[in-house]
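Deliverable D4.2, example record:
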Amino acid sequence: MFDDRGRRAGGTASRVGLDGDVLQQVSIPAVAMPFVGPSGHLLVDASGAISRITADGSRALTARGEAVASNGTQLAWLQCDGDLSCDIVLGTVDAPDGVRMALEPGRRPLTGVSGRPVAEFSPDGRWLALPLFDSSATGEQPAITIALIDVATGVEIHRAAGPRANPFESPLAWSPDSRWLIFASDSGIDAWRAGSRETTTLDLGFSVARDLAVRSAPR
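Output generated by the structure prediction step:
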């Protein structure tokens, strides 16, 4: 929702049954899109605080920082010491302060035009694909790189080049078995095999995509 000046305002999240009936509604703060957890809870990110809203509407502070990615159970969030240094913290909704990965100076997680984080956990929760941009760059299009991170250790396994054209429309998608990440790059549509240290450009007959989905992938 937006106020009369076009600023994002609070809204309402509805829980809807399969028959279309609205079962419950809870108010949420100014947030583009909340993360939905498997138990029906919501994670909302507003004013530097990540809060958990349960199905009955009760709220609890989860972490101080900015949400980067969540699958409803796992959470990656940004914690900064002023403008000097930032860490990506990897944990769970119940224990968010887990392993840490320090970002290079000026590097920040990419968000889409709606404010929704672009980073994605793999379906099995083992990997995090984290698009980053250089916030200190002065060019018209910031250079995007995609960090592939081992969630258990916080170690970056590989860094791939992302797109320069329309960087804030930077689609990526995991295969259902978590073995492959497909993403947009300057060279077209690339694939990263989980755990490897290289990427491959796919010969798909097109080089630009606004969205990606993977139904299955070769082993």
